[in-house]
Each structure stands twice: as C-alpha cells, then as structure tokens.
Amino acid sequence: MQKNDTATKPIEKDGLKPVKHKKRKRPRKKRYLFLKFLILVLICVVVFMTCALYGYRFIMEGMAQAKVILTEETGIVFKVPYGASTASIAEDLKNQGFIKDTRIYRILSKILGFDNTYKAGKFLLTKDMNYYAIMARLGGEPLKNPTQDIRIPEGKTLLETAKILAEQGYIDGEKFLKLCEKSNTAFLFLKDVKQTGARKYPLEGYLYPDTYKMDEGWTEEDLIERLLKEFDRVFTKEYYDRAEELGMTVDEVITLASLIEMEAKYPTDYKKISSVFHNRLNSQELRKLQSDATIQYARVYEGLGRISTVLNKDLEIEHPYNTYKYEGLPPGPICSPRKESIEAALYPEKTNYYYFFATPDGTNIYNETFEGHLRDQQKYGVSGQN
C-alpha cells in the first residue's frame, strides 16, 4: 500500500521550491564578551578601591605616626648626611633596621613625591613607623641643635680640611671647595689675593684653625665667613704694620707662616725656622727654601697623597710649589697657620742659620754652613735618602 507523500511534503507551486523558515539566533557571543568586560571592570574597580583604601590607611597611619612627639629616650636618632641620595638613605635605614626593602622605599619615595625633599641633619624615628611616616619625618625639620662644635684642624691643606669636614657630615665638600675658589674682597687681607693657574683656592691659608660653635641652620657660606672673621680678628693692625716694615704683603706673610706651621713640631722651633727662611729669602745665593712641606703639598694637589718621609726622588716633582726647584716663596700658603706661626713669620729670631733638618724624634738641627749640615745629617742618620 503506497503512502501519500503529499501529506508530508510541502506543495510546490508554479514550479518553485518551498521556502524553509529558519529560527533567528540570538547574539550570544556579543553578550558573552560584554559580560566579560563588565566582570573585568568590576575586578578593576574592586582592586582600585582596595588599593585606594589601603593607600589611604597607609598614608593616614603614617601621618599619625609622623606627628607623634618623640624624645631621645623614646626615639632613635637617625642621621642624614649632607648630599645624601634617596638610595643611600634607604640603605642606611635598612642597615639600621628601620625598613626591610630598599627598593620599595625608593619607589614609594618617588611616587609620593618625597625625592629631593630630604634634609641633612638628625631625626628621631622608631622602628614601628611605616615607610610614609619615615619619609615625612626625613622631609621635615631636623632636630634643633642650638650650637654645633666644628673643629678646623691645623696643618691641613684646604682639600684635606674639606674632606675631613665632609666625612664628619658637616659640609657638602664640593660646595665648600667651590666657595673657596672665589676671590673675596670683603676683607682687607684678601683684597689682592686672586685665583691663578698655580693657585686654585684664594682662601687657602685664611680659614683660621680652631674649634667653632656654629648656630643652628648654618651653611657652608656661614662657616667660611666665620673662619675668615676669626682670621681678621687674629691678624691685628700691628701685624699689618710689621708686614709693611718687612716689605712683605699679608699673603707672603701667611705663606711663610704656613711653611713654619708644617715644619715646626715644637714651639721653640717656630722663630728659628722662620729665621732660616728669612735668611734665604734675603740672600743672593740660597734663594731656594727647600722645604719638604711644600713637596707634601704638591703631592696632595697632584692626587699622590702624603708620604711619611720625603725622599730625593720626590724632590723632582714638577709643581710650582716645589721649593727645591723654584726660588722664593711658593705661589700661596700650604695650610692655614695658627697665630704662633704668623708671629714667627713676622718676628723671626736673629740667627745666621741657612740650613735645618728634623731628627727621627722631631728635633730640628740648625746649621750656618752646608758642610755642617751634611755632617750633622750623617751624625743623625738622615742623609742619603733615595
């Protein structure tokens, strides 16, 4: 029995195939992407809000910690040297147990705008402070210190003095030296002292060696002015008059005094050594002062450093301060002399000495002749150094 296909097949009209009606699909893929985007935005918002909340709490907690009043009994003194970078401060903080991660500290310091705000000085911190509190403290005012004792050592070149003070955290060494390169006409004793090719620092010799009490907030300019004022106080009108009587400028007197300062170990030698140098300066044949101290000065400024004993080979150094090669006084002082040396330069003992040398214990032996000088050198075993 045949089935009637007409009941199951669509009827064709006019020779055309019947049109099948498809169901319209919903854009599921677009809805899926949009949903992912919404989730991502929601995650970002949550992360941002969490970070913002944490950052807010971090900053507020840090601000509260930074405002806590500390004393030297309740806090720990942390010192920031002059010219310290954020990296070096972070290292010091870690080494002293205030922070654990220097990299995080440096990043936060940069992001939060604390770089270049840190001040030199002493600060009170505690080890439970967060990073923000520490940064806020170090960017604030250092501990009040009404006076600070600063010792300017005698017998040191200006380069050596700047290095000592910088290492002790008192000054920015580079800034200090830059200031010492400038001529200073505010003081009578400096009016004719200028920078030359042979003399880089016009202030060499005039930063009077002593211990000074500097008031709170002093700068390198303040320190230099204080030292020059002290020199001005020490170098009296009597000294100006005596220098004129000797036919010497103030700078020549201080240059000679600096040689005496470096050559004399005992007070009894000051005026005798001065007499040797004066006798040579006034002679026709022995104009070279032949001072080992000027060799040491030349070595310092050539970057060679001081040596315990000047040998014959050291006398060949090519430098304008080498008084074994060049006659008369060197171009300028080789250290800042004390009052005793200045007085010795102005008032030498009257002698006929032209030679002297130091024995191993620092005693100076004087002679009028070269033959006597050689004889005594052999006697004390200080000749023939090569």
Question: Can you describe what's shown?
Answer:
The protein is mainly alpha-helical and 386 residues long. The protein has 3 domains: 88 residues, Endolytic murein transglycosylase (Dna Ligase, domain 1); 89 residues, no CATH class; 151 residues, no CATH class. 43% of the residues lie in helices and 7% in strands. The protein contains 13 helices and 6 strands. It has a two-stranded antiparallel ribbon with strand order 1-2. It has a two-stranded antiparallel ribbon with strand order 3-4. Strands 5-6 form a two-stranded antiparallel sheet. A hairpin with a 5-residue loop joins β5 and β6. The chain is elongated. The mean pLDDT is 85.
Task: Summarize the entry for a quick read.
This protein has 13 helices and 6 strands. The chain has helices spanning 28-67, 86-95, 102-111, 131-138, 158-167, 173-180, 220-234, 237-246, 250-263, 270-281, 292-301, 339-346, 370-380; strands at residues 76-80, 121-125, 147-151, 211-215, 355-358, 364-367.
The proportion of residues in beta strands is: 5-15%
Summed up, the helix count is 13
Enumerate the strands of the largest sheet in spatial order, edge to edge or round the barrel. 1-2
Q: What's the N-to-C terminus distance?
A: 139 Å
**Count of individual beta strands:** 6
Radius of gyration: 40 Å
Query: What proportion of the residues is helical, as a percent range?
Result: 40-55%
- The mean pLDDT is 85
Which word captures the global form? elongated
Structural class: mainly alpha
Question: SSE string, helix = H, strand = E?
Answer: HEHHEHEHHEHHHHHHEEH
- Total number of distinct structural domains: 3
Low-confidence stretches: none
Major sheet: 2 strands, antiparallel
